[in-house]
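Work Package 3 (structural annotation) set out to generate three-dimensional models for the target panel prioritized at the project kickoff. During this period the team completed the workflow that converts sequence records into discrete structure tokens, so that structures can be stored uniformly alongside our sequence database. As a representative example, we reproduce one entry of 280 residues exactly as it appears in the project archive.
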Amino acid sequence: MIVFLDGRFVPEDHASVSIFDRGFLLGDGLFETVRVAGGRPFRFAQHLDRLSRGADFLRIRLPFPVEEIQKFTAQLIEKNQLPESILRLTLTRGAGKRGYSIVGAKEATSTMVLHPLPQVEDEPRQWNLTTSSFRIPVADPLAAFKTTSKILNVLARAEAEARGADEALLLNTNGEVAETAGGNIFWVDQGKICTVPTDCGALPGVTRAVVLEICQSLGLKTDKQVTKPEQLRDADGIFVTQSALGIVPVVSLDNQPVPQSPLVERIATVYNEMLWREHG
């Protein structure tokens, strides 16, 4: 596999990052996960916009203009001959002095790697959810970006897998539904498609935004509402959105079956059509 590292294309075995890199030492960085379809990243502009805003917030200078990142990405896809894949773009503050101060950390580290699409046997296309014991902060300004500090999500997913589930449902410190360890949560309530407001601690996901677009195009009512897990259990259907897998229906929550709403399949069908129409 050929990877991108700081402006160069190198075999993955030859790619290395300093042990003093703050991304490695402190999780001081950002990342984006992007679905590549038909050789082109889906909704890449939205991903790059979030990355740029996150870099500004964290005071990390992008090492390349957005237009150049797009060109590098196209070259990476071509070099690896992976027109159907998952792109992981990572930006860290780079190497710096010991401690938390960002003074002296001037050269950001940027990497891009491609992964083949996950197979069904490795990543189920329907998920069993379990409510995690871990909680995320309400109204955390960092929740607006995909930072590389994801240990809470790692532990929540590990907890879910230890329980025999596929994914963890995360509540915030108010006990309200926020998101899952790796995606945004939606549910169906009497024909209405609901999700949580982002100030509940949820990432404003790109696929989340696409689903809201789809609902508008289909004439489906949507609502962003604060909800408790017990209300979620009464839903007519639940699904998770994320860039890698798109729309993932939920078949159980805390070992209780979840109804399968035809609206979820309808939205997923349009999403897949959009994926190919825009980039196929």
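The chain is about 30% helix and 30% strand.
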